[in-house]
Amino acid sequence: MCQLEARHPDVYDKFSRGFHVIRRSNQCWAGLSSDLVIEQTLMRSLKSSGGLTHGSGMTEEMRALWTMSIPITSEYNNAMQEFNDLTYTTSEQHRESTEARMKRNHSDLEKIKEKLSTCMPFSPDPSLRNIITGLVAKEDVNVHEYETVGNEIIEKMVGKTVLGISFKRKDRAKTLAHESTIKFAQGRTIDPALLFQRFLVLSKTRDLSLEDVMSYELSPFPTALFEAKEIFRKADKPQLAHAVAEYSSKKSKEAVMDSIPLTEHYVLDGGSLVHRLPWKKGDSYGAIARMYADFTIRHYGKATVVFDGFSEGPSIKDNTHQRREQNTRPIISFNAKTEFVGRKDDFLSRSCNKQGLIDLVTEELQKKGCTVINALGDADMNIVKAAVKASHQLTTLIGEDTDLLILLLYYAEANNRGLYFRSSVR
């Protein structure tokens, strides 16, 4: 090879132009060096079935016989292939060019494309969030400012000895998985009985009169109305519903029924419907919305569904929302293709999350032919009015809230064909 240029200039010229590989086919990436071709052909035949290492032996006579007979057997092999119209071919030698690999690459590319379309990192939303789960970071999350956090820690180390340095948990960068463990003190209620006794004793021993003492509130807020500071007590609605049912059953045997006649139209409380069905982790929010639509069609047909509205403005349900959101859960940025992770109750505890889901469910219900009403705030009045409006035919209102029963008793018309109220399907 060192004297190839002088002894075989034509071969040297081809080597210089890149013709130093052997191509057994015209496919891409099929050029192989001579030693690899020898391994794939000659050595493969020698070590495979019918070769020297499988029964023929490796003696000098057998090696000579096998080597000299290869050209003749190859001619016989080609003649038999032509006679039978069959061709012996090998499998694809480059994995990246196989049809299966190309299909797999195309499938992976489509998955990446779909994921980027549903979890676009370059959106106008400036909030810090997980683009896969849609989890929106809280205000105290500063993991994106890790360099600043690190510099602040280093500044606190300046001028201190090794033993004098202590790393505190609060100084660490907070990630999306961080959850504040700080508990805010609830408004404490002063025991009115104990406070009254103390004032009574004080009025007997000092210059204060009982009349002056009783002219002031004995509690920071009326405990009969508030369960905590700025949070009203929750009404005992089931007790009211039980009293109404008991009174009505005494007046008429048909007021409270065990079963309802065949209904022509249903009106559903959307809030109750949202909490009715269980969710499966890994399903997309679009699939969850379709599940609600299928459930509605299967049990109630093309019903009228009325949803609450969760706008930014004030609402009569603000106190209820405040009570439900005492344990603050994260906000989720999602669309129809985002996969659901976490817990359903945590997701629905935030009004903005619930409103996004209602929008998806509304779209799916309308595709199924259902009538959907989206209230601006509390939907109880809209639900009852929709039921009363449809009462020219046998109508059943599906809901769990006692408020619906009270409003229905007030707004129901005497000349309706039939209007019933019951809870959801169990």
Automatic annotation (TrEMBL):
It comes from Homarus americanus (American lobster). PANTHER family: CXC DOMAIN-CONTAINING PROTEIN-RELATED (PTHR46704), TELOMERE LENGTH REGULATION PROTEIN TEL2 HOMOLOG (PTHR46704:SF1). It comes from the Eukaryota. This is Uncharacterized protein. InterPro entries: PIN-like_dom_sf.
